[in-house]
Amino acid sequence: MGGEEGVVTPGEVVGDSSQLIAGRGVYLAPNGRALRASLTGLRKILPPPPGSSDQRSTVEVVGHKAHGAVPQPGSVVIARVTKVMTRMASADIMCVDTKAISEKFTGIIRQQDVRATEIDKVDMYLSFRPGDTVRALVLSLGDARAYYLSTAKNELGVVSAQSIAGATMVPISWTEMQCPLTGQVEQRKVAKAD
Amino acid sequence: MDVEPPSNPPLTSCIDRIVLPGDTVLDLSTMANQTIKLGEGLRQDCDTISVMKAGKLRLSKPNKYWVESSHKRYVPCVEDTILGIVVDSKPDNFLVDIKGPTLALLPVLAFEGGTRRNIPKFEVGTLLYVRVVKANNSMNPELSCTDASGKAAEFGPLKDGYMFETSTGLARM
């Protein structure tokens, strides 16, 4: 448990399992006694959660660099739609929860995840267009290429979009947005503004 | 030297005349509440209607305006009946070249009496007579070999004969 200011490296023993519980970045070594770090970072001890039978503190290793946010299942992301196809739309994830991200992540919104009702009658072109900014929920890590996103809730969907004339459109209902310059109404799956 | 901006002629004087891209044919702020339907080649820019394609401005009473033009480039439109050449086949669609901006998709089931068991097999290079079902500017167009009611109606692969490329105006005649 040495090193300056509690910095530990992967594999280093950070505690004993009889006194501490493994938290984030820490795992139980195969011999069942020692707790070892799995990340490089600072070693922190957290107090035991109140009301639990186990009175051991939790030891965790927190990354010493501020890593960019990574989308996790259940987090709400802001993404920009890049491609719209018959059965799905591709989007580039720009922010996770409230943090902007540094690397590029791709998400896919499938036809059945666009809305909650009548999912087989969804027309992707009437829900999203390339260039729209959408708020979506991460469903799962998906495949190697993209996360699976969903907009099947009232507060998820298109947040901001440009009309054919080039102006930012104003939402009218959960399916329509209107261009302020020309008055044309375009269809999108609109997020409920709060 | 002062250059005065050209005054916008009223719409009625441009009917059946040649118009060029960028010409403003109508100023909506001078008109009362009228509904005008814009067809191909016209676009609304805030308060004015301007021309996008060179051609003759046509009117179909009471209120439909469009620009009739003949170009070498084809832009797919819904309900066009066109010829296409099969380029590839996927599990769900055939990829068909319709000489437009992108390849078009022909669903494997879009034939009369089409089921999963009798999927037609088209070789690469087969000439098809098809109908455009969906044509958006950001997605690949979708085709069909049936008419709106589901009947074959002479759509499908063509045998014998000869195909050549023309301008869009000649093809529409």
Automatic annotation (TrEMBL), chain A:
CDD domains linked to this entry: S1_CSL4 (cd05791)
Molecular function GO labels: RNA binding
One of the Pfam families matching this protein, by short name: ECR1_N
Keyword set, alphabetical order: Cytoplasm, Exosome
One of the protein's GO biological processes: RNA processing
The keyword Cytoplasm belongs to this UniProt entry's keyword annotation: yes
Domain Exosome complex component CSL4 C-terminal: 99-141
Superkingdom of the organism of origin: Eukaryota
Family annotation (InterPro entries): Csl4, EXOSC1_C, Exosome_cplx_N_dom, NA-bd_OB-fold
Gene3D superfamilies per record: 2.40.50.100, Nucleic acid-binding proteins
Coiled-coil region: none
Cellular-component GO terms for this entry: cytoplasm; nuclear exosome (RNase complex); nucleolus
Cell compartment(s), UniProt: Nucleus, Nucleolus
Sequence ranges assigned to domain Exosome complex component N-terminal in this UniProt record: 7-45
Name of this protein: Exosome complex component CSL4
